[in-house]
Write a structure and sequence with these properties.
The chain is an alpha/beta fold. It contains 12 helices and 19 strands. It is globular, with a radius of gyration of 23 Å. Strand 9, helix 8 (200-219) and strand 10 (226-228) form a beta-alpha-beta unit. Strands 3, 12, 13, 14, 15, 16, 17, 18 and 19 form a 9-stranded mixed β-sheet that branches. It folds into 2 domains: 26-274, TIM Barrel (Alpha-Beta Barrel); 276-396, Beta Barrel (Lyase, Ornithine Decarboxylase, Chain A, domain 1). It starts with a strand and ends in a 13-residue tail after the last helix. The structure holds ligand LLP. Ligand LLP binds next to helix 10 and helix 11.
Amino acid sequence: MPFGTLDGVDLHALATHLPTPFYAYSSSAIRERVTVLQAALKDLDTRVCFAVKANPNIGVLHLMAGLGVGADIVSLGELRRALRARISPARIVFSGVGKSDEEIAAALSAGVWKFNLESADELALLQGVAHRQGVVARAAVRINPDVDARTHAKISTGKAENKFGVSIEEARDWFGDAAKYPNVHLDGLHAHIGSQILELAPFEQALQRMAAFWRELEQAGHQLDSIDVGGGLGVCYRPGEDAPIAATDYADAIRRAFDGFRGRIVLEPGRYLVAEAGVLVTRVLRVKRGQEREFLVLDAAMNDLQRPALYDAWHDIVPLHSEPRPLQPYDVVGPVCETGDTFARGRQLPRCEAGDLLLIAGAGAYGASMSSNYNSRPLLAEVLLDQGRYAIVRRRQSFEQMIATEQLPQAWHAA
Ligand code: LLP
């Protein structure tokens, strides 16, 4: 691909139409990831449910829908986005440790395929809501397999100490007590051990534990309809350092673990499908010579892309200069008023000047989705690119939109 282009679109030209910063996502790259994953799983009965939290833009979800991908949702907002993007409710799974009564009721009315339940309390809640609606809900129990995913502590979810899922012992009781929940058809297992996982071993451990439990349940006469292996497949943020697991190796591990399983395997990839397809396009506001370092002050900040501030995450930063320039180290920062607003420290980059265009790579997952209005900065525009064309899938937020739900005190109420 020619330098400075993404999915056939010249980012310099795009930046003349759209003010920076903005997010751009390559449809072709997303399509390719979906195709690679589907090909790796081809002889298995699977359902790929995109983890909406990674990139909830309805344009992206609509692209997923067109590729036959369903959704893994964790809130009413995500449910509504998925439906708006025309993802069939029959392809939606509802995960999350704190589903509210209202969310369960709405998801049940919408006809979502399966609830991934994370506590006995939630099981009882689902029973109550389903009973009121006069329906039988389909559900899976989220197992906490007590596996160390060997990833960043803040995105590790499968250890016994984490808030997610229940132990296999507890799950065994749920199946034993099924008669107590006549409006819940518990016929699935679920696990998700963490995110940005780069080694196969933790996945294999979790899959083996689930498989042993599935076999035990089967022997006890419980027929399972689905096993949901969650998401977590890591991607390459740092070329030469991160070595992601090949989709085929991951699929083989699933195949080995669930040999003989007659139900459906569900996957909930988020990052794997979109992270590397997205970039944050930004400009250098100024080059500031500090007392000890040289700072590149960008027009993008930690509120736009939180990952470096939150997880010390590495994102490649690529200046889009056409001519070669000498390398030099920069601290790459945003305009927000805290030191954590740093994208990179001491990063070797071709010399930059005010007005230069840069891209921050690997920004398609957990980028826009985690952004905020901190420092009263508006949410950014998002653009979908596709083989030389672009479509704006989110306009940049205006000031009026940013404060639309705020008001001066109209009346004071006694409480
Ligand atoms: N399924 C469940 C139940 C999840 O909680 C998650 C992510 C996924 C699937 C998708 O995981 P993925 O395939 O994207 O790894 N904000 C963090 C990542 C948080 C992931 C939360 N759960 C980051 O920027 O690294």
